[in-house]
Amino acid sequence: MRCPSCVLVGWRFQRNAMGVGRRFESTAYLGVDYPLQTRSGGLATVPGNVAAAVTGYASRSLYAWLGALARRPMDGPSTERPGTLLMYSGVLGYRPRRFRQDYPRPDLRVFLEVVGERVTPDRVAGSHEPDTGSCPAVGKASPWRRPVA
């Protein structure tokens, strides 16, 4: 499966340096994506509008970030329409004192990320397609654990 082409414009509307190596910042994104294939999962693909926002705190030892992205299909002549997508994420990170090394030594951090998504049902011929979309879902990402299908 090919990924869609996407054009995003970002605006960092808040950046607050709180001292050496510490900051709080927020960024918003707006964009358009255009699918490179005509069908996906038996459904016609359509371009979509994308909006996202992320905000968080970063320092030499602690990281805390929240973010969300929404993708809504554009209206068009097709009677088939994929569902609207909402993705969200929260990240906590910590770098213990013994891992705070200068270059060229390794600089190691530990992260915990919680991710989730919600997809509204697809529409075919103006009505919702059964068994599509999703319930709100939350999961955790870990490099040491595979997701359960």
What does it look like?
By secondary structure, this protein is mainly beta. The protein has one domain (5-141). It contains no helices and 12 strands. The chain has a 7-stranded antiparallel β-sheet with strand order 1-2-5-6-8-9-12, with no helix packed on it. Strands 7-10-11 form a 3-stranded antiparallel β-sheet, with no helix packed on it. The chain has a two-stranded antiparallel sheet with strand order 3-4. Mean pLDDT is 80; it is low at 140-149.
Quick overview:
This protein has 149 residues and is mainly beta. The protein has strands spanning 5-17, 23-34, 39-40, 43-44, 48-58, 62-73, 80-81, 85-94, 110-119, 123-124, 127-128, 137-141.
Our estimate of the beta-strand percent is: over 45%
Spatial separation of the terminal alpha carbons: 19 Å
Total count of helical runs of at least 4 residues? 0
**Using only CA atoms, what is the Rg?**
19 Å
Arithmetic mean of pLDDT: 80
Task: Identify the overall geometry.
Answer: elongated
SSE series: EEEEEEEEEEEE
Query: How many structural domains are formed by the residues?
Result: 1
Structural class: mainly beta
Helix content: under 10%
Record field, number of beta strands? 12
Largest sheet: 7 strands, antiparallel
What ranges have pLDDT less than 50 throughout 5 or more consecutive residues?
Answer: 140-149
Strand order within the widest sheet?
1-2-5-6-8-9-12
Topology:
Layout: E1 5-17, E2 23-34, E3 39-40, E4 43-44, E5 48-58, E6 62-73, E7 80-81, E8 85-94, E9 110-119, E10 123-124, E11 127-128, E12 137-141
Antiparallel strand pairs: 1-2, 2-5, 3-4, 5-6, 6-8, 7-10, 8-9, 9-12, 10-11
